[in-house]
Amino acid sequence: MRALFRVVLLLACSVWVIIAQAQGSNQGNSSHSNPGEISNSEGTGRPEPIRFSNKAKDDCVMVFSSQRNSTKLRVSCKSKGKSYWCDYLGKPNLCRAYSNNPRHYFNQIMWEMRKLPNSCQGLRSYKPPMCRSATDEAQMVFHASWPKKQQQSGKAGPTSKPLKPQQPKEGSKPVKNPALKPVQPQKPVKTTTQRPTEIPKSWADKVAEQHCWESVQGICSYFINLFQW
Q: Are 86 and 27 in contact (CB under 8 A)?
C-alpha cells in the first residue's frame, strides 16, 4: 500500500514539474519578443486600435500595422452619416524611443488629430515629440485619403467688361458737353492812350506870349486879365 502511494506521489510531482517548465518557456518567449511589436490582450497578434473623438465629435479609430519596409497607419472616422479615412506611411522603427513604447508613439499622433474637426485634414506628416531627435524617415507621412480633397479649378472668375460709350438714339439731338468745347484764344485788348485835352488859350495869354518873356508870361497874362476887366 505504501509502495503504491509512493508511485502516485512520484507521478504527481513529475506532472507538476512538466507543467511549470512549460509555463516558464511560454513566459520566456513572450519576454523575448521583437522590439517595436505591440501585443494584444486578446492574443490575436494584431495591435490594439486606438479610439478617440475629434473636435467635431466624430468617432475615430486609429489602426497601425507593420509592412515589409514601413509601418502603415490608417485613421477612420464616421459621424452623422458621413465617413472618411486616411493612410500614413513611415519608418518609426528608426526611432529608438518607438522601439521601447510603440503605442505611445501613435498616442502622441492621436492627441494632435483629436484637435481637428476633420482628423484627415491635418498635417502632411507627423513626427511625435518622443522621436523629435530622430531622422525624418521616422515620421508618418500622408499617403492617401477618401474622399479625396476637391482640387480648385483653374477657371478664373468673371471679369468685368469695359463699359462701351452709349450711342445716341435715332432722331435725338446729340448732347453737347460744355466741357469738351474748344477753348477760343482771347484776342489781345488794344489799349489807347488819351491825350490830355488842351485848354484853349485866352486873349491875355496870346498877348503875353507876344510881348513878354517866356519866364514871366504867366504873370503878364494875369495882369492883362485884370486890366481887361
A: no
- Of the candidates 122, 124, 102, the residue with the CA atom closest to the CA atom of residue 112: 122
Q: Is the dihedral of CA 178, 179, 184, 189 positive or negative?
A: positive
Our measurement of the distance from residue 186's CA atom to the centroid of its chain's CA atoms, rounded to an integer in Å, reads: 62
- Planar angle of CA 216, 220, 225, nearest 5 degrees: 150
Enter the C-alpha cell of residue 90: 513611415
85 Cβ contact list (under 8 Å, min separation 6)? 74, 75, 76, 77, 120, 145, 146
- Residue 75 CA to residue 82 CA, distance in Å, equals 14
Nine-digit cell at 158?
Answer: 468673371
- Whole-number Å distance between alpha carbons of 175 and 167: 11
- In 3D, which of 110, 38, 114 has the Cα closest to residue 74? 110
- Site of grid cell 486873349: 203
Nearest one of 91, 95, 33, 29 to 64, comparing CA atoms: 91
Distance CA 120, CA 149 (A): 10
The dihedral built from the CA positions of residue 99, 101, 102 and 106, taken in this order, carries a sign that is: negative
pLDDT digits (tens, 9 = 90+) for 122-159: 999 999 999 999 999 999 999 999 997 554 344 444 44
- pTM of structure: 0.48
What are the φ/ψ torsions at residue 172 (nearest 5 degrees)?
-95, 145
Provide the residue type at 136 as one letter.
D
pLDDT (mean) for 45-59: 91
Torsion of CA 221, 226, 227, 229, to 10 degrees: 120
